[in-house]
Amino acid sequence: MSERALRGVAARIDARIPRPESFTSGLRGPRTTARIGTWLAVTFTIAFVTGLYSHASQLATPPLTLPSGPSRLYQVTQGLHVAAGTASVPLLLVKLWSVFPRLFVRPPRAGRELVLNLLERVSIALLIGSAIFQLATGLANSAQWYPWSFDFIRAHYALAWVAIGSLALHVAVKLPVIRRVFTEPVDGPADGFDDGPRDGAAEPGHDGVPTRRTLLRATWVSAAVAVVVTTSVEIPGLRRLAVLAVRSGQGPQGVPINRSAVGADVAGLFDDPAWRLRVVGPVDTVELSLDDLRAMQQRSAVLPIACVEGWSASGEWGGVPVRDLVALVGGGPDDDVVVRSMQPRGAYRESRLPANFVRNPDSLLALTLAGEPLHRDHGFPCRLIAPARPGVLQTKWVREVEVVKA
Ligand SMILES: Nc1nc2c(c(=O)[nH]1)N[C@H]1C(S)=C(S)[C@@H](COP(=O)(O)O)O[C@H]1N2
Ligand SMILES: [Mo]
User: Which ligand is nearest to the CA of 339?
Assistant: First the structure.
């Protein structure tokens, strides 16, 4: 093909790609984008900080000592994490809509401008890509749907750094525009921008086109509704509104079930009369029957199960403080405890309780919930329940407790 013919083809393709002017809604533009963007920066920062905390909580040996109280700490931070992510979905959709025409700005021809333009586009592609990835995988996770083959925790954690890093860069680059936006009125004429209606389009607030203020309010309301209908949080009255939540708060003994005894392959093991709890320590190893455990000093505590997936529910648990078991086998106050389930396979069959959690008297090897022996699906004959701890670490159907050096 001759160069002329090539140019002809290129021109025809170019003519078919829309131009920013092809999009006529006057509701788009910096005054909309920067306001929604500010909210997104807030929700992403909340999700990032609470996500880091959740990630650290789930490490076998966290890099720093995390507090074992107040008992609802993890319930609150993980509730915030899921709520912030959920609110981000409508915010991100409206924000992407508001900047969509800018995708079709033709890049500069050459030189320094072209390089800078490409760099900016790469950073925005990273931001949008990682943001969509985080929201999609997080949402699927809270719906207990795992349609992928990669390790969710590692991928969600790694991409969190990409998202927050490219977000910080983006805010820094856009800071002059953002500052200007907040000095201009939301609606009506503005000095600083050329974001009014395109030729031939109706102005916001006229001829049936809503004002920017209306668009922004509708966006805030959709974000709030998305959170309320999906997040089954323990706020009185709110749970009944969570019609789209995966876990409603129903379940035996008032607490939902994550994995059942049959699902964990422990049916036939958990009610074996020969079951004994093995407690392994630096000085002694003892085997305790359920009656032995019931004969020990009992303690009760109201503690939540707070699943990483975002649901949570509190119950009154009764049982033996873990620290009493540690003392029984000669462990000390600075020892950690590893709790092992009789579940034959699965990621959550073992967890480690750091020493400061062991020292907390509300960390229980629970035998009862709501005053009754544990339901088989809540971990009969006994389970770990400790304050300020992710649900995944509240090991059910416990077989062994081992005292280990921190
Ligand atoms: N052995 C074992 N313990 C487990 C699990 C598991 O799969 N196996 N799931 C964990 C998760 S993810 C949660 S949220 C809680 C839920 O406890 P519940 O089913 O009693 O509400 O149990 C935890 N303990
Ligand atoms: Mo969970």
Answer: 1
